[in-house]
Amino acid sequence: MLLQKKLSTFGEYLILMGKTFQRPERMRMFMKQYIKEMNSLGVDSIGIVLLISFFIGAVICIQMKMNVSSPWMPTFTTGYTTREIMLLEFSSSIMCLILAGKVGSNIASELGTMRVTQQIDALEIMGVNSASFLILPKVLGLITIIPCLVVFSYATGIIGAYATTLMGVITASDLTVGLQHSFNPWFAWMGIIKSIAFAFIISSVSSYCGYTVKGGSLNVGRASTDAVVSSSVLILFADIFLTKLLS
Question: Higher confidence at residue 140 or residue 70?
Answer without folding.
Answer: 140
